[in-house]
Every structure is written in structure tokens, then in C-alpha cells.
Amino acid sequence: MNQDDPTAQPQGDFVNNQAARLHADLQNFSRQVASCDKLIRMANISLNQIDGRIAEAAHVEARAAAIVDASAREAARVAAEAATAAVAASVAQLTSVTKQAQQVCREIDRSHGKAVLWNAAYIACALAACLLTGYVTYRIGKAAAITPEIEHAVALAARHETLLNKATDKEKKQIAEILARRAKNK
Question: Is 101 left (phi over 0), alpha (psi -120 to 50) or beta?
Fold first, then answer.
């Protein structure tokens, strides 16, 4: 094997090393994407919990409305019987239930607001982590992209290009004939 001929250099190891390196980078990137997916799933779980609380609030509100309706019917019946004391008690009960329902709604609104803020912060942190991971991966990949082997191959190619640019038409014709012969032998 001719050491001066760039086509005679064993390049299988270089290609295999680059392929292994690319494969390792892809595995690392896949793990990072899986981590981002896990963070997003966790955010979705939090949103589902918020939806559950909202459904619970709607159920409490419906129950309160049912109580209000029942109280109103009771108050009407008692008023029809001319029992002023019973009407006052029903109004007091209605006020108490309304206050409880309002308090439950306020608590739900407060819980919902806190959950939304936590979820927004969580999603922002997850996205920042993903962006940071992508940036670090990009910087590592960019820094490791040009290896000494690649630099040597580029320098060798530049020397060949310089020689070809300086070659006369006769020399270029001879090179073309050599390349054509090599292709026929294969």
C-alpha cells in the first residue's frame, strides 16, 4: 500500500469511529428528548388534576344550587302556611349555604390560580432545561465536529486542489486518462 496516496489510507476505522460517535450522540439526544417528554407528561398530569378540581367545584355548585332550590321551595311552602319564623330560618339557611358556596368558589379559584402558576413555572423550567440541553449538545457537537483526521484530509485535499490548479492541460489530460483506466479495471 502506498503511504503517499490518499486513496490508499485505511479509512474504515475513521468512518467507524465517526459512526460510533454519531450513534452515541443520537442516543444521548434521544435520552434528552425522553426526559422532555416525561416533563411534559408530568405537566399534563398537573393539568388533569386542575380539571378534576374544577369538576369538583362544579359538582359543589350544582349541589349548592339544588340546596338553594330546595330551600326556596321550603320557604315558599312555609310562607304559604303563614309561618314567618320558618321563612326566616329558611332565609338564614339559604344565606349560609350561599356563603359556603361562595367560599368554596373562592378557594377553588385560589387553588386554580396557584396550580396554573406552578404549572407555568414548571413548563418554563422544563423548556429552559430542554433549550439548555440542546445548546450544550450543539456546542459539544460543534466543538467535536472537526477532528484531526478531518483537518488532515482537508489539508491534503487543498494540496491536491493546488496541484490541479497549477497543472497544465497536458497533465490534466493525463490525469483524466489515469482515472478513466482505473474505472475500467474495476
Answer: alpha
